[in-house]
Write a structure and sequence with these properties.
By secondary structure, this protein is α/β, with parallel strands linked by helices. It has three domains: 3-247, Glutamine Phosphoribosylpyrophosphate, subunit 1, domain 1, CATH 3.60.20; 250-452, Rossmann fold (3-Layer(aba) Sandwich), CATH 3.40.50; 456-600, Rossmann fold. The protein is 36% helix and 23% strand. The strands form five sheets. An eight-stranded antiparallel beta sheet has the order 3-2-4-1-10-9-11-15, covered by helices on one side. It has a seven-stranded antiparallel beta sheet with strand order 5-6-7-8-12-13-14. A hairpin with a 5-residue loop joins strand 12 and strand 13. The radius of gyration is 25 Å and the shape is globular.
Length: 614
């Protein structure tokens, strides 16, 4: 959620840190700050409520010199968004400055202890408690900063990624993580710190992914030193970033979200590349092939995720049960981890996450692992916590997704689930051979069919202008397209702040129909599939109550088109593949409604891209 940037090297740190903060704005935040250690040994902290631009303006005319520094964008947890609660935080002596992503669960207890020791506090944050604990331990046990951080972390309960610098010690930057992502970039005579690769990729492709409960000593002119809280030395493993700078820039589009919607033909092609044989019409997933016995013997599949990824997981349930004949339970990760679920050693858990760092999903993984379940992850970010914590898995290869509202993450997650279900079904003999090849053949054509839908963007923009008045939307779908209705509603409320709800169309009569009048827009996902006649009846019920209908229909549709006020056509395809196509116009609809209303679609209020706290 919060963004962390750090630098130690031979260049001025401030421009690098500010640029890094701008790269991290997509994560969602409410304040920003920077700490710099100059050549005179002065440790200067500057921070403001609001955007990074506010911080830049605030720093004009101030001493921003120094070749070591840390910077932060905060998403408020403890204490309201304001200048005082923004990071970095000084220790009481102002000899230390700390930035922190995460939540310290026992901060109140630690704060009481420190108050008894004579410490005072300026902010309402758990982070200020954190830095005071480090200073307290440093003084009490006469430790250097690295030793003090190591020892202080044994007192702390919760999640954290931190960067800390010390006055009069311009050669050291200490970092640590537990439950929140953190990477170290290795340049020529310089080092970088980041919550993810985006603030680092411009300067180096060589990175170290920091593991849970690991503490890092970055020292000028020295090799990176890492140990864990058991005081075991960790040999750093340097990886190569696959990310290109062009992937995290807008490329001529007005917003990242629109760019990412239009990237979906490419991202789905990358997702299928090397996994779908165009000649043989076969799916080849190494993670499935190497572990097929686990799927063959599986009692059931548990899918756990949050938000958009949970909607993709709902589609996965339909896929695995239809093509693999394996029972599936789909769980919201935040509920799964706390409801004392029954997990068997022959279960398979599939956690799904764009970032690979979603806190609740990681906790669900830990619970499943403790019970002996096999864990098969689906995520986008190479080297993420989910990728490193699973038994096997499949990357979506969607490329970086900067817009907070997921678009290409969703369609690539669904694509991976489709490939998995087909690959497992073929191995288990639970899918008809002819049907298998028909679906694979059609899957290959999906990127080109998405392009046809994207050509309709001006048409969808015009429809969107009609409905900016609305206070509420209702989204309806059936079968494979019920989760698409949920996802469409989520996209709209995320970026336009219009209340929207998704329902199975048949459930409309069990309550939501009471809301329908001539002011209520109803989005109906109605491709011509097995349940088409049923959904036509649902559409007629809406129209009888004067609801204004926007319908997503198959090209050439006749029945729904007679009744709907507006129709957006999508190409015909196999039923199990329709969610990929029907979700595209809903993404565009949400985008254009929000932009016409003047909303910041890339950074919607109160939201963060990577939810690394509960």
């Amino acid at each position: 959620m919060c963004g962390i940037v750090g630098y130690l090297g031979n260049k001025e740190a401030f421009p690098i840190l500010i640029k890094g903060l701008h790269r991290l704005e997509y994560r969602g935040y409410d304040s920003a700050g920077v700490a710099l250690l100059n050549a005179s040994g002065e440790l200067n902290v500057y921070k403001t409520k609001g955007k990074v631009k506010n911080l830049e303006d605030y720093c004009k005319g101030k001493d921003i010199s120094g070749t070591v520094g840390i910077a932060h964008t905060r998403w408020a947890t403890h204490g309201e968004p304001n200048d005082v609660n923004a990071h970095p935080h000084y220790s009481q002596s102002e000899n230390l400055a700390l930035i922190h992503n995460g939540i310290i669960e026992n901060y109140a207890t630690l704060k009481e202890l420190l108050i008894r020791e004579g410490y005072t506090f300026k902010s309402e944050t758990d982070t200020e408690v954190f830095v005071q604990v480090i200073e307290y331990v440093k003084k009490k046990f006469n430790l250097d900063l690295y030793g003090a951080v190591n020892r202080a972390l044994t007192y702390v309960i919760g999640a954290y990624a931190i960067g800390i610098i010390e006055k009069n010690n311009p050669n050291i930057l200490i970092a640590a993580r537990k439950g929140s992502p953190l990477i170290v970039g290795i340049g020529k005579d310089e080092f970088f710190l980041g919550s993810d690769a985006s603030p680092i990729v411009e300067f180096t492709k060589n990175v170290i992914y920091i593991g849970d409960e690991e503490v890092v000593k970055i020292e000028r002119g020295q090799q990176v030193v890492i140990n864990n809280l058991k005081d075991e030395i960790i040999t750093p493993e340097v990886s190569q970033l696959e990310l290109d700078l062009s992937e995290i820039e807008k490329g001529g589009f007005p917003h990242f979200m629109l760019k990412e919607i239009f990237e979906q033909p490419k991202s789905l092609g990358m997702c299928m590349n090397g996994r779908v044989s165009f000649d043989e019409l076969e799916i080849k997933l190494r993670g499935i092939t190497d572990n097929i016995d686990r799927f063959r013997k599986a009692r059931r599949i548990l899918i756990t995720a949050c938000g958009t990824s949970w909607h993709a997981g709902l589609i996965g349930k339909y896929l695995f049960e239809e093509f693999c004949h394996i029972p599936v339970s789909i769980e919201v990760a935040s509920e799964f981890r706390y409801r004392k679920p029954v997990i068997y050693s022959d279960d398979i858990l599939i956690p799904i996450s764009q970032s690979g760092e979603t806190a609740d999903t990681l906790a669900a993984m830990d619970l499943a692992r403790q019970n002996g379940a096999f864990i098969y992850g689906i995520c986008n970010v190479v080297g993420s916590s989910i990728a490193r914590g699973t038994d096997s898995g499949t990357y979506t290869h969607a490329g970086p997704e900067i817009g907070v509202a997921s678009t290409k993450a969703f369609t690539t997650q669904v694509t991976v689930l489709i490939m998995m279900a087909l690959a497992i079904g073929k191995e288990l003999g639970t899918i008809n051979h002819e049907k298998y090849h028909e679906i694979v053949k059609e899957l290959i054509n999906i990127p080109s069919k998405i392009k046809l839908i994207l050509d309709k963007a001006p048409e969808i923009e015009n429809i969107s202008k009609v409905f900016t008045y609305a206070k509420n939307f209702l989204y309806l779908g059936r079968g494979y397209n019920y989760p698409v209705a949920l996802e469409g509603a989520l996209k709209l409320k995320e970026i336009s702040y219009i209340h929207a709800e998704g329902y199975p169309a048949a459930e409309m009569k069990h309550g939501p129909i009471a809301l329908i009048d001539e002011e209520m827009p109803i989005v109906v996902v109605a491709p011509k599939l097995d349940l088409y006649d049923k959904i036509v009846s649902n559409v007629q019920e809406v129209k009888a109550r004067k609801g204004r209908i926007i319908a997503i229909v198959t090209e050439g549709d006749i029945e729904v088109s007679k009744v709907a006020d507006y129709c957006i056509e999508v190409p015909d395809t196999e039923e199990c593949l329709t969610p990929i196509l029907t979700s595209i116009p809903l993404q565009l609809l949400s985008y254009y409604v929000a932009t016409v209303k003047g909303k910041n679609v890339d950074q919607p209020r109160n939201l963060a891209k990577s939810v690394t706290v509960e």
